[in-house]
């Protein structure tokens, strides 16, 4: 029997085996600290998603919507009541967890932190699970029980292989930075995280920052939950909330990428920016899906604009305000404003880079990436105005094809040599950074000009369709009213 982290046994001077009980309890505590989050999150998410899916499928949720209780009390009651057996199982495990903590001499502060972070994260994940069901039922039709099971399975996989590793890694490097032995069994080898100049290894700062992030994320989820609960046809978030959400996310990302930019190597800052743009492409595609209204909403808005009897100057002013803040208006301008917010946050950071660190290349790449996102948003808005019932699927497939086609064509045509027009194809995809330094300035200028041209044509096309739809809808209403009066 060997003495070590993996074996809490020692050999005495007489050759007998003795158990190091403190190390034994430490092993048990480490195992429980890793297992408890999975035992709470995964079954709770499954129960919540299947229960709410059944209520939507049976039509009982529509009856509940008519009750005088608020959406907060109804959905909050589901989070408290549906996984009741999971909470009971967790309560039964608590005495053993406490005994292991006492036997391993774990401080009380670690237990308080562990339960606090576990509860806050669990409430966020359970809220997100309910939102996932409401979204899937709003955008997908049919499927019955198979839809609930499929969505629950996908969400659980996302939690198990995405959220859970991030949850453990984040907490080990922040809130539990001073308690690593109770999760990984050792002290050394942990890197220190900085947010701007704040050391997240400090327990007070780390806990405040972590609970602030969880609180803001939970607030955003409940904002969407309330909207989808009362009106399944509405957009996932309001435009006003979208502006604040984008600013919060971008500032948070900047805080992690900005430290030590002055002492970074010539390529490190550019690599950080490439990572940021990759994250932003995914994030803004999700934001676009959350902001874009669908066909019937746009038809109602177009008819309302058609029937507006204001002067031309006032109409333009009101139109701009409606495009910026309105719930039913097209979201292309709102997406552009979000991209401007992103640029205002990141361009000053790029300008502060030391000389010789690819500042011009970074600025051009950022501009082209944001322009590409705006083009994707305009295409998605135009496709969501289609008459097809499968317009969500068509919009998703089209954007996916536009993202993947340029690099695939470049790979097929290049034959291992990324030169000439083949290199230029990459400029029309989020992977433009791979060839940004291999093309001429004229090519970059023409690409940016092409983006603005395509964007202008898409918005012109959408405007014409909205005007025609508004005119035809108003004409049908007038004709119908005349027929009723005759």
Question: Can you walk me through this structure?
Answer:
With 486 residues, this protein is mainly alpha-helical. It contains 16 helices and five strands. The strands form two sheets. Strands 1-2-3 form a three-stranded antiparallel beta sheet. Strand 2 and strand 3 form a beta hairpin. It is globular.
What distinguishing features does this structure have?
486 residues, mainly alpha, two-stranded antiparallel ribbon, 3% strand, disordered N terminus, disordered C terminus
Strand content: under 5%
Gap between N and C termini: 100 Å
Task: Name the strands of the widest sheet in spatial order.
Answer: 1-2-3
Oligomeric status: single chain
The biggest sheet amounts to: 3 strands, antiparallel
Q: Count up the helices.
A: 16
Indicate the radius of gyration in whole angstroms.
27 Å
What structural class do the secondary elements suggest? mainly alpha
Total number of β-strand segments?
A: 5
> Any idea what the shape is?
globular
Helix content: over 70%
List unreliable stretches of 5+ residues: 1-5, 309-313, 481-486
Would you list the SSEs in sequence order as H and E? Answer: EEEHHHHHHEEHHHHHHHHHH
Determine the mean pLDDT: 82
């Amino acid at each position: 029997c060997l003495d070590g982290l993996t074996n809490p046994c020692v050999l005495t001077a007489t050759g007998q085996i003795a158990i190091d009980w403190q190390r034994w309890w430490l092993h048990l505590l480490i195992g429980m600290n890793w297992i408890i989050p999975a035992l709470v999150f995964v079954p709770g998410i499954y129960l919540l998603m299947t229960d709410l899916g059944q209520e939507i499928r049976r039509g009982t949720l529509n009856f509940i919507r008519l009750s005088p209780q608020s959406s907060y009390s109804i959905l909050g009651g589901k989070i408290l009541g549906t996984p009741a057996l999971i909470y009971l199982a967790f309560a039964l495990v608590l005495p053993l967890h406490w005994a292991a903590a006492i036997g391993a001499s774990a401080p009380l502060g670690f237990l308080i932190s562990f339960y606090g972070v576990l509860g806050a994260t669990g409430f966020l994940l359970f809220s997100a699970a309910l939102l996932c069901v409401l979204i899937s039922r709003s955008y997908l039709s049919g499927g019955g029980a198979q839809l609930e099971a499929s969505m629950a399975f996908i969400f659980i996989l996302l939690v198990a292989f995405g959220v859970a590793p991030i949850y453990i890694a984040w907490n080990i490097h922040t809130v539990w930075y001073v308690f690593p032995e109770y999760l990984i069994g050792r002290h050394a080898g942990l890197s220190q995280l900085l947010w701007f100049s704040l050391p997240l290894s400090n327990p007070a700062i780390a806990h405040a920052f972590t609970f602030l992030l969880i609180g803001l994320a939970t607030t955003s989820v409940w904002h969407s939950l309330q909207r989808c609960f009362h009106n399944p046809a509405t957009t996932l978030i309001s435009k006003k909330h979208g502006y604040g959400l984008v600013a919060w996310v971008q500032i948070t990302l900047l805080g992690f990428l900005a430290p030590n930019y002055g002492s970074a190597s010539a390529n490190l800052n550019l690599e950080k920016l490439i990572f940021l743009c990759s994250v932003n492409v995914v994030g803004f595609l999700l934001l676009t899906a959350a902001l874009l209204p669908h066909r019937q909403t746009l038809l109602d808005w177009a008819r309302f604009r058609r029937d507006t009897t204001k002067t031309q100057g006032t109409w333009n002013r009101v139109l701009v305000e409606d495009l910026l803040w309105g719930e039913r208006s097209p979201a292309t301008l709102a997406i552009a404003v979000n991209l401007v917010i992103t640029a205002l946050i990141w361009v000053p950071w790029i300008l502060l880079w030391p000389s010789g660190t690819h500042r011009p290349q970074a600025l051009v790449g950022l501009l082209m990436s944001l322009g590409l996102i705006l083009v994707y948003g305009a295409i998605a808005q135009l496709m969501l105005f289609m008459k097809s019932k499968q317009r969500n699927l068509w919009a998703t497939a089209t954007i996916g094809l536009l993202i993947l086609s340029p690099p695939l064509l470049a790979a097929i045509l290049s034959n291992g040599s990324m030169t000439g027009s083949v290199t230029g194809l990459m400029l029309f995809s989020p992977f433009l950074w791979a060839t940004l330094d291999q093309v001429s300035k004229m090519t970059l200028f023409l690409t940016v000009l092409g983006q603005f041209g395509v964007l202008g044509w898409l918005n012109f096309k959408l405007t014409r369709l909205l005007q025609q739809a508004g005119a035809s809808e108003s004409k049908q209403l007038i004709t119908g009213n005349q027929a009723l009066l005759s």
